[in-house]
């Protein structure tokens, strides 16, 4: 069975294809809202779970209805007010939702047009629905981390206390973020006054306000850009060693040290044992050749075994940093060039003594 994240993603793709043809509130319910509730695990055809056109008489008002009421264990837990998908929720009339919230035991209410879902509770004043939502979910632009919050409203995970435990932080955090973004674009007089008091000793005149409004706006936006740039740079720096390591691993995976190369390595160790401790001889295999080096130092290459060709084998012996290549038929032919190899060893040893 698909999980909620996959179902919401599929609904989002489908909704973007059909939203242009949805004209009425009823069509919005059928095409968008009911599939959304189904994705959260509610049986939309079971009236004991989802009651459409929920009615509750309120004082002298009789027969008013809210579009849906979600029940759990026979108790109303969520009220839902629906609007056409092309309507602006910020201008939607929510009188019925406010009144119903006060007279039912529901602690949550949702206002939706099938695309935007605004979740309300009574954080500011008990039993009175807040004027602003604590959580907003947009079917087209939601972020992956918002799915975790949405899952709390699923039939399987629904827990009043668990949701209320984070609702306050979500609500006020969202409002602070909204104010902050607004201040970035258009700094208020209060914000401008704050910064002016920190950097300017003169009077806060009209001209000072106008001048510093521009300065504050540009400074805040530049500071944010710098922060983003620094984080991106650090992220790139952190990823480079990993990418390099992966590249090296990939290259190593393509290298295969053959038995003939190993035989050639031991033959050269045997030759060098006449002059030095053979344990100072090391082998480093690469794609095109197998290097035999002194003291595990790439700058002290003794020979290169070029055995990768199926038709010809070659050995390159170094002398004064220059490689001289010889054709051989098998590794045993390396013994023919023993003097060349020993000469190379002696050159490295003489250089080491001079450096010492």
Would you write up a description of this structure?
- By secondary structure, the chain is an alpha+beta fold.
- The chain has 3 domains: 4-173, tt1808, chain A (Alpha-Beta Complex), CATH 3.90.1570.30; 189-230; 259-353, no CATH class.
- Helix content is 46%, strand content 19%.
- It has helices spanning 4-18, 25-39, 95-103, 146-151, 160-185, 189-199, 206-254, 259-272, 338-355; strands spanning 50-55, 65-72, 75-82, 108-112, 116-120, 135-138, 281-285, 290-294, 301-306, 313-319, 322-328.
- The protein has a 6-stranded mixed sheet with strand order 1-2-3-4-5-6. A 5-stranded antiparallel sheet has the order 7-8-9-10-11, covered by helices on one side.
- Helix 3 links the parallel strand 3 (75-82) and strand 4.
- Helix 1 (4-18) runs antiparallel to helix 2 (25-39) and helix 6 (189-199) packs across helix 7 (206-254).
- The longest helix has 49 residues, at 206-254.
- It is elongated, with a radius of gyration of 38 Å.
What's this model, at a glance?
This protein is α+β, with helices and mostly antiparallel strands and 356 residues long. The protein has helices at residues 4-18, 25-39, 95-103, 146-151, 160-185, 189-199, 206-254, 259-272, 338-355, and strands spanning 50-55, 65-72, 75-82, 108-112, 116-120, 135-138, 281-285, 290-294, 301-306, 313-319, 322-328.
